[in-house]
Design goal:
InterPro entries: NAD(P)-bd_dom_sf, PRISE-like_Rossmann-fold. This is NAD-dependent dehydratase. This protein has 354 residues and is of the alpha/beta class. The protein has two domains: 194 residues, NAD(P)-binding Rossmann-like Domain (Rossmann fold); 127 residues, no CATH class. The protein is built from 13 helices and nine strands. A seven-stranded parallel sheet has the order 3-2-1-4-5-6-9, sandwiched between helices. Helix 1 links the parallel strand 1 and strand 2. The longest helix is centred in the N-terminal third of the chain and has 19 residues. The protein is globular. The mean pLDDT is 95.
């Protein structure tokens, strides 16, 4: 029989890539979301406010997935609210399915903030030695990732499913309408710099500019999620999920600039975050998008300056070890420069940039 997948957060960068991969492998895919973004072709769509337990339970009444994938979060004003809301969304879905998860696989996508702490705690506590390894465990800070994990673990004890947790770094992938996408944000930024003559300045910290880094291609993460849902060695395990190569931004930045036909500016004397420099960007993008008949004129649906600033502004080196995943049998790999180039090509083909 055809395997059934339920993806919570299907309209996002990760959910879209996962849906496409599962369909390629013959799965029937259903997406559960708030209904704010388009879902991939060929998928069933369920819509609910994930914070409302009764609504989620009613929507899921007939669902019995072989694999349940969580790739969803809702940003709140502080980490305690993030814990309440985001932990609650995971719990509501699990309780909405209950015993129908018996024998299934439940996968949760979190990220490297597992090791770094949440946005508001960056650099405020001890950071594990790089590369980050799964054995390093949790930081002694509030973190909604931990709350989501605990809901998955509790559900496994209660309803008899197996689980996996996946920790990607910055996701590079395609999803218009999902603005928390650094690759897409950088593509919009570079296009603005080319069209307006603005300098293409790296907005992040000296540590990120010069230190070792890695990222996660959405397609690679999709491959790992599918592998974990079916491989015996992946049951009840946590895994890092990055491309497998490492780089320094002072090497990658000029290559991104070259793709867009511009020069990379020298690293500035002090950090120059995007959020403080993009006050004119919305009006400029509307004019550019209208003139070139691009798909989206509202820059807020394409770029998230604060999120990219947070990723690139970390005051520490951040990269990841993949040994645990490889030893368990997952050997997927991507070249990071190729990941960015493929995304930029896709954005051009879809008339998001030009």
């Amino acid at each position: 029989m055809q395997k059934q997948a339920l993806i919570v957060g299907i309209s996002g960068v990760i959910g879209r890539a996962l849906a496409e991969k599962l369909q390629q492998e013959g799965w029937q895919v259903t997406g559960l979301s708030r209904g704010r973004g388009a879902i991939p072709d060929g998928c069933r769509s369920l819509t609910a406010d994930l914070t409302q337990a009764d609504e989620v339970k009613a929507v899921l009444a007939q669902e019995k997935p072989d694999a349940l994938f969580f790739s969803v979060w809702s940003r709140q004003e502080n980490e305690k609210e993030n814990i309440r809301v985001n932990g609650g969304m995971v719990r509501n879905v699990i309780e909405g399915l209950q015993d129908r998860l018996n024998g299934a696989h439940v996968a949760l996508v979190t990220g490297l903030k597992h090791y770094l702490g949440p946005f508001e705690a960056y650099g405020k506590g001890a950071v594990p030695v790089t590369p980050f390894r799964e054995e390093q465990g949790r930081q002694p800070v509030d973190n909604f990732y931990y709350a989501q994990e605990d809901e998955v673990f509790a559900g496994a004890e209660k309803y008899g499913y197996r689980w996996s947790v996946h920790r990607p770094h910055t996701i590079i992938g395609y999803a218009v309408g999902n603005a928390m996408n650094m690759g897409q944000t950088l593509a919009v930024y570079a296009t603005l710099c080319r069209e307006k003559g603005w300098p293409f300045i790296f907005p992040g910290s000296p540590e990120q500019w010069s230190g070792v880094a890695d990222v996660t291609d959405a397609g690679l993460l999709a491959e790992q999620l599918l592998w974990a849902a079916t491989a015996d060695a992946a049951a009840n395990q946590d895994f890092n999920a990055v491309n497998g190569d490492v780089f320094r931004w002072n090497w990658l930045w000029p290559r991104i600039a070259a793709y867009f036909g511009i020069e990379a500016a020298a690293y500035p004397a002090q950090m120059m975050p995007l959020e403080g420099r993009m006050q004119e960007a919305a009006a400029a993008w509307q004019e550019i998008a209208t003139r070139h008949q691009l798909r989206e004129t509202d820059i807020n649906k394409l770029a998230s300056w604060w999120h990219t600033d947070a990723d690139l502004g970390r005051p520490m080196e951040a990269f990841t070890d993949m040994s645990k995943s490889r030893k368990a049998g997952f050997t997927g790999y991507r070249s990071t420069l190729d990941s960015f180039t493929r995304l930029f090509d896709k954005l051009k083909a879809e008339r998001v940039i030009f």
